[in-house]
Design brief:
This protein has 162 residues and is an alpha/beta fold. The protein has helices spanning 17-29, 42-51, 64-67, 71-84, 95-108, and strands spanning 3-7, 10-11, 14-15, 31-38, 56-61, 88-92, 112-119, 125-129, 134-138, 146-149. The protein has an 8-stranded mixed β-sheet, sandwiched between helices. A two-stranded antiparallel sheet has the order 2-3. Helix 4 (71-84) packs across helix 5. It starts with a strand and ends in a 13-residue tail after the last strand.
Length: 162
């Protein structure tokens, strides 16, 4: 099992619940590695990220993250992916998250799946489509999987500590 990058969704360093859900899912796939992008506040996020299983935290602090929503985050996440060759990249499925994920997929030449409601250990995603009337499964076949996961589809579980 390799590393699984998780883009941290936060407000001034306070980690939002969807990130904790992604860290829980990432533990099924490999070693969760958080990617924190922001003007500041990374020190506030470290405790929560560690508690929910992040084995490493890549920090990109720059005022540009406060001025621009998408481009700097996509570049930082793509750089982290190029450096570590992770098994997958998970991003919260919000309008901003989907835009970041799409840009990362283009930069890396990878496939992308959006609006997943679950990700299995083998990388197969589950999506609820057509207003929840159908459930489909899919798997990225080109490059490393870039997956956006809908908020509130997984229960955040703190990692076991030894």
């Amino acid at each position: 099992m390799g590393e699984v990058l998780v883009l941290v969704d936060h407000v001034d360093g306070a980690v939002r619940k969807p990130t904790l859900e992604l860290l829980t899912i990432a533990r099924r796939l490999g070693d969760p590695v958080a990617v924190f992008c922001g003007g500041s506040g990374a020190d506030k996020a470290l405790d929560a990220l560690g508690r929910y299983g992040a084995t490493k935290v890549y920090v990109a602090e720059d005022p540009a993250f406060d001025e621009y929503l998408v481009a700097p985050k996509a570049e930082a996440l793509a750089a982290a992916a190029r450096a570590g060759e992770p098994a997958a990249v998970l991003v919260t499925s919000t309008p901003e998250g989907k835009e970041v994920a799409a840009r990362v997929a283009v930069k890396l030449g990878s496939g992308i799946i959006t609006d997943a409601v679950d990700v299995a250990a083998d990388g197969t995603t589950t999506q609820s489509v057509f207003a929840g009337n159908f459930t489909v499964t899919a798997k990225v076949t080109t490059g490393m999987p870039i997956v956006t996961v809908k908020p509130n589809t997984a229960t955040p579980e703190a990692a076991e500590t030894t």
